[in-house]
Every structure is written in structure tokens, then in C-alpha cells.
């Protein structure tokens, strides 16, 4: 069966189409965002049961490139790519769905799972989209496109994924980062992978404006999420979650939101499953934002009747410190389709939630802390029922944010750190160690959460 895909304008009054090998990021007719559309009629020639069987057969196997959590769904992603010559895969996806049993009991919910998207090659869910974008770039270069390098603005994770995949493909990469607003671990990733790193005196929104300007030169290809190729890979996270639940759909999915490409991606994968007969219901989607970078939350309070960009303030959740998200239209459309909710978390709430989760066996980045804090708030408000099956999508690995975690446990934040756990400094003597052990073990609640 010959499957096809193309770019299409999201404006229903326009609908302009472009081939996937076009160097285009917004509709040339109306300037709206684009999305990848698939020949759904051709895909529907296979039944939902047949798609499930095929995806199960490929999942985490050794046949190239199908062992990847993304490329195992090849027909739903880039069906026309030369999969033997041009796919750039680092075995992304296939990440653990963590049963947060102990944390569930602490916060009073029956069943909570955490999708650990940070357990991937560059340490974040951005790998899911970047494998698709860089593979398509490699295909375009092989067809004669004049692309010399791929560029992105980033709050850390996008640049790491781009640098990693471009290094693997042998394609130059350029990353624009806001100086002093990302973790050192995130900065060193593109440096190590050989990117041209431009460390700029601005915030993410400033970097985004500049990268949009420089990529007007068609020799520099834009890799940010306004390029809808990224969404095609990231949409597999929803598919994979349902697959890991033996094709049963959870009641609620909570995802941190910054530039908001991940929100529309999550929804897109779930809608494809429904439309192709793999599932017959949809979950509610909750978007979790940091209070200091909350433009979508503010729009939600108006029933999405208006949206106004803001100047995002410094937040521990630095990867979502974005005041003017480029995928706002897609995100709002998705939330309306999924009975969506948007909630925010303060700095103290997100840091405490991350630390509380760590005490039950996780190792959370601050963005997962935002999602966990929002879950706790919605439970207390009765907007999520304790009997519902909930999945929190953890977007990055906690090791990328060790400075934040160290400051929390050293109580160097500007709020009380409820779950801080400081090392005990002692002389290297047996009596001192025994005294410390006896005191700690006798201390009521010392190991409680």
C-alpha cells in the first residue's frame, strides 16, 4: 500500500498544501501554521486490529528502523522517506511507563503512572520529534536541497536533541540559547555534540524571533516546533502510552506546556488512533504551566476567547519559560477537542512536588514537578477524581537540572523547602557515624513523605 503525507495549512478557510520536501514553516497564503496530513483513506485500508498487531510486532525489536518507538509507526510518520538510507534514529521512544504506586497513596489517587520521556538518548521527549525532522532534512539534502545547517532557538532540550541527531547524521547544527536561563547540563549538550552555540543576552522569545529571521535563508533549516515535522514524532508518545496499557486509554493525561507543540502532538496521535479504529474513546488532556510563564492558563480563564503574549518571568521550570508560544493555535484547538483543562503551579508548588515525587522513587525535572503540582491541585479541587487513571508525562530527565535540585536541598530557594534533605557532615569516626544513625533512626517521621 502506498501511503502519502503532506503539509497543510491549519486554517480551515485556507487549507493550502505543500510537499514535505518544501522549505516552508507557515502558510505562504495566510501565514497560519502548517501540520502534516496523512492519506487517512489509505491508512484505513488496514483495520485497527491489524495496526495494533503490526505495532506490537515491531515494538522495541531489532529490525531497522522499527525498534524505535517512533519509526515502529513509520507509516503514520513519514511514509515516503527512504527508510534504509535517510532515517536518523538513536532508538528513541520505548520509554518506561512508571507505576507511581507510593506517590499515588501519598496524594490520594488510586492509579497514577508517569511516562518517563527523559529516559531517551538526549534526555528529553524532544528526541521523538527531532529524529523525524533530521531524517527529513537528510532526505531533502539527498534530493538536492541547498540546506547547509539546521537551526533552532531553545530553552535547552530542543538544542540538545537537535545537536545529538545532527551529529549522528553528519549535518551541521546551530543553536540559539538565552544566556544564563538554562541549566549548565543543557548548555554542555550541544557544545559537546559540536553545534555552533550562540549564547544570547535575551530570553527564549528573543531567540525565537532571531532564529525565524536567519532561517529565511533557505540554506538554514528551522527545527523549532513551528516546523510541524517535529509534531509527527512527538505524537507517538500518546500512541505508545496507550500501547503500553494494552490499547486501553487512561482517563487523564497531564503534560507540561511551554511552546505548546507537545500538547497538539499528544492530541494528534490520539486522534489518529481513534480515527483508524485502534481506540474508541479519548482522555482529557491537562496542560500544566508555571505561574511565571502562563499565557495559555490566562487564555483558558477567558474560555480561550482571547490570547495575549506575556513577558515570561524567571522560573525553575526553565524549559517552559515562554511567554509567546508559537503553537498556541494548535494547542487551543487540541484542548477544545479533548475537554481540556489548564492549571498553573507556583515555584514552591512545583519544587515541592518534584521533591515529594523523588522521595517515592522518581528523580524529577522541574517541569515534571509542574505537572505533579497541577495534579495535586486538581485532585484537591475535585477536578480529577481519585478513581481516575492518570498519566503524567515527564518531559526530561532530572539529571539535566541538578543545580536546581541541589539548591532546593540546601534550602537556597526564596521559599520554604518542605522536603529538603541535607547531607550530614561528620568526622570519619565510628562513634560519630553511630550517633548520627541512632539519631536519624529514632527521629519520628525522618523517612516519611
Notes on the structure:
The chain has 449 residues and is an alpha/beta fold. The chain has a domain of 206 residues: Rossmann fold (3-Layer(aba) Sandwich). 38% of the residues lie in helices and 14% in strands. It has 17 helices and 13 strands. The chain has a six-stranded mixed sheet with strand order 4-5-13-10-11-12, with helices on both faces. The termini are far apart. The mean pLDDT is 96.
Q: Work out the oligomeric state of the chains in this entry.
A: single chain
| Residue windows where pLDDT falls under 50 for at least 5 positions | none
- What CATH calls the topology of one domain is Rossmann fold
**How many individual helices?**
17
List the helices and strands and how they pair.
Layout (H helix, E strand, L loop, with lengths): L4 E5 L7 E2 L15 E5 L1 H4 L4 H11 L15 H4 L19 E3 L1 H7 L3 E6 L9 H17 L6 E5 L3 H13 L3 E6 L5 H9 L3 E5 L3 H11 L5 E3 L6 H6 L1 H9 L7 E5 L4 H15 L8 E7 L4 H7 L26 H10 L3 E5 L1 H12 L7 H15 L8 E6 L7 H8 L20 H13 L7
Parallel strand pairs: 5-13, 6-7, 6-9, 7-8, 10-11, 10-13, 11-12
Antiparallel strand pairs: 1-2, 1-3, 4-5
Helix pairs in contact: 5-6, 6-7, 10-11, 11-13, 14-15
What attributes characterize this protein structure?
Rossmann fold; alpha/beta; 449 residues; single chain; four-stranded parallel β-sheet; 14% strand; 38% helix; 17 helices
Summarize the structure.
The protein has 449 residues and is of the alpha/beta class. The chain is built from 17 helices and 13 strands.
Amino acid at each position: 500500500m502506498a501511503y502519502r503525507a503532506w503539509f497543510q495549512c491549519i486554517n480551515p478557510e485556507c487549507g493550502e498544501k505543500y510537499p514535505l520536501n518544501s522549505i516552508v514553516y507557515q502558510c505562504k497564503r495566510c501565514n497560519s501554521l502548517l501540520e502534516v496530513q496523512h492519506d487517512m483513506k489509505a491508512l484505513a485500508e488496514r483495520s485497527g486490529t491489524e495496526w495494533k498487531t503490526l505495532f506490537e510486532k515491531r515494538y522495541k525489536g531489532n529490525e531497522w528502523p522499527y525498534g524505535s518507538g517512533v519509526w515502529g509507526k513509520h507509516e503514520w510518520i513519514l511514509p515516503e522517506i527512504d527508510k534504509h538510507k535517510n532515517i536518523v534514529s538513536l532508538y528513541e521512544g520505548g520509554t518506561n511507563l512508571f507505576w507511581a504506586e507510593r506517590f499515588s497513596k501519598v496524594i490520594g489517587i488510586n492509579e497514577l503512572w508517569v511516562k518517563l520521556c527523559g529516559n531517551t538518548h538526549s534526555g528529553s521527549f524532544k528526541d521523538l520529534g527531532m529524529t523525524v525532522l533530521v531524517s527529513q532534512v537528510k532526505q531533502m539534502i539527498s534530493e538536492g536541497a541547498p540546506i547547509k545547517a539546521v537551526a533552532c532557538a531553545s530553552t535547552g532540550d530542543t538544542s540538545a536533541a537537535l545537536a545529538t541527531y545532527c551529529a549522528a547524521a553528519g549535518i551541521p547544527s546551530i543553536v540559539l540559547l538565552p544566556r544564563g536561563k538554562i541549566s549548565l547540563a543543557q548548555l554542555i549538550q550541544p557544545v559537546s555534540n559540536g553545534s555552533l552555540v550562540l549564547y544570547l543576552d535575551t530570553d527564549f522569545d528573543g531567540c525565537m524571533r532571531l532564529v525565524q529571521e536567519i532561517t529565511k535563508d533557505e540554506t538554514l533549516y528551522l527545527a523549532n516546533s513551528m516546523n510541524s515535522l517535529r509534531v509527527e514524532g512527538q505524537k507517538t508518545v500518546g500512541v505508545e502510552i496507550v500501547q503500553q496499557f494494552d490499547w486501553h486509554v487512561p482517563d487523564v493525561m497531564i503534560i507540561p506546556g511551554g511552546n505548546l507543540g507537545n500538547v497538539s502532538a499528544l492530541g494528534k496521535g490520539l486522534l489518529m488512533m481513534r480515527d483508524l479504529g485502534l481506540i474508541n474513546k479519548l482522555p482529557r488532556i491537562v496542560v500544566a504551566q508555571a505561574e511565571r510563564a502562563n499565557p495559555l492558563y490566562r487564555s483558558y480563564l477567558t474560555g480561550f476567547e482571547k490570547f495575549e503574549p506575556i513577558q515570561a518571568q524567571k522560573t525553575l521550570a526553565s524549559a517552559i519559560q515562554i511567554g509567546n508560544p508559537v503553537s498556541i493555535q494548535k494547542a487551543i484547538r487540541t484542548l477544545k477537542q479533548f475537554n481540556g483543562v489548564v492549571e498553573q503551579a507556583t515555584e514552591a508548588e512545583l519544587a515541592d512536588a518534584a521533591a515529594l515525587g523523588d522521595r517515592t522513587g522518581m528523580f524529577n525535572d522541574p517541569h515534571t514537578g509542574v505537572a505533579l503540582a497541577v495534579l495535586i491541585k486538581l485532585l484537591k479541587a475535585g477536578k480529577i477524581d481519585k478513581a481516575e487513571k492518570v498519566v503524567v508525562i515527564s518531559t526530561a530527565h532530572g539529571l539535566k537540572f541538578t543545580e536546581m535540585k541541589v539548591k532546593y536541598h540546601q534550602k537556597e530557594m526564596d521559599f520554604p523547602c518542605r522536603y529538603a534533605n541535607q547531607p550530614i557532615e561528620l568526622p570519619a569516626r565510628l562513634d560519630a557515624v553511630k550517633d548520627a544513625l541512632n539519631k536519624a533512626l529514632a527521629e519520628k517521621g525522618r523517612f516519611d513523605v
